[in-house]
User: Fold this.
Amino acid sequence: MKPVRTRFAPSPTGFLHVGGIRTALFAWLIARQTGGQFILRFEDTDKKREVAGAREHLIRSLLTLGLEYDEGPDIGGQFAPYTQSERLSSYQDWAQVLIDAGKAYADPYTPEQVQEFREQARKEKRPFLYRNHRPENPPAWDGTAPLRFKSTPRAYTRIDAVMGSLRTGPEVIDDFVLIKSDGYPTYNFAHVIDDYEMQITHVIRGQEFLASTPNYLNLYEALGFEPPIIATMPHIMGPDGKKKLSKRDGAKDVLDYVRDGFLPEALVNFIASLGWNDGTEQEIFTRAELIAKFKIERVQRSGARFDEHRLQWMNGVWIRSLNIDELYDRSREFWPKSSAGYDDTYKKRVLGLIQERLKYFAEIPALTEFFFVDLPIHMELIDNNKQLKKLERTELKQLLEHAHVSLGQSNFSVEDLTQRLNGLLEQTGQKPGVLFSLIRIASTQAPFSPGLADTLSVLGPDVTLRRISQTIDSLL
RNA sequence: GGCCCCUUCGUCUAGUGGUCCAGGACGUCAGGUUCUCAUCCUGAAGAUCGCGGGUUCGACUCCCGCAGGGGUCACCA
Assistant:
């Protein structure tokens, strides 16, 4: 058995969205579960479309999600280089092989002429096939004209690891361009050569390549290469469920999710579960479980819609699974400016209180602000509270004064606070819905907060009593 | 238009002839957990399995049509 080698081969034309990441993830999983290699290759044969910084961005996206590769443009490897623009001589050599075998020829037409053929076909509502115009005696290829593949049209029945058995007729086979007039190979040619030379065993790619795969098969035959196992992934759809998720339609960069405080393990879990499951009712998978359980045959053939709600839920599950030290470590850069003067111990206590309500780290400032600064008095929190608005201001004031006295004697441990809070309930004869709401609002001025005793304990006596006093004053 | 792929609750999905008048999860709604938000627990609503034919004692599951959606038909990948 040949060692498994999979690859992810993006073109450096932009960022990586969830669709791209999923392809990379599945390729990575296959490599990891078989002890094989995962290779990164840049397909940069279209100079016009290249975006500055895209290479670094792509690499960072993969590494951030933990999809580390064994060979790649920046780290090299046995089959370096891993950037197509640096492999031109390879393509030249194989092009020559094809020319010598009578399997490639120079395209004698001008782009305008080819365009005309195309228009004509379109007008006749027929698919465009270049080979209908294949020249009888093409000139020798001097590198200035496109080099075309001389195809041998035939039907194919093939097995796609995801799509299953696929059948196409000879009408889909055409003489596609191998080498462009600018000297660069097309994707169609370059990837076949590279996959062969890099000994790639599994090609995992998006559905947009499904239609051209028979052409690649034809080229593999002409070159005498054994084709790799091919797995074609359905597209991930945008929110409308129709179009494939694309950058134009607001598909987000995966790194944007990381920037918003989504955990890589949650992102990986979520992306894997878009179109794949292990047949059980398990939803949460660790990286190790994915490696152990992933099966390309179980990947869904239909496109899946990207549901951010579900991602948030899953991220929350992952956040809750972390111990407090690790959670704190991972959330460091998300704390509000106002927390700067507070030490790690304090912030960890705060984090412990909000852990179960966090969906992603970018919510931390909104959830924790009142632990660091006094929020302005929000009287409408009282006025809009359906229990509190029934009471006179003097009554509210009295309740807070009682609380101030009792809490003033507390050591502010959670136990003591709980006891005193319960004591106040008896003393005032009020229901928790009234008393606790009031104290909670007075001491936080926030629309919501963690449990009262926990919150007060973290806030401490100085802050708690000061804020209660301030609220009393503003009730006058 | 040709060719190819797809089609189960709003969403992600389980399901490979009978155990499915279809199961789980997210979301939604209701109730509970001494206050809010969240977590957690319980419960509810939610899919005549795209439609129509067939095969079969029996079909979500097999076959054939149709419809809808998507992809592709570049010197882009």
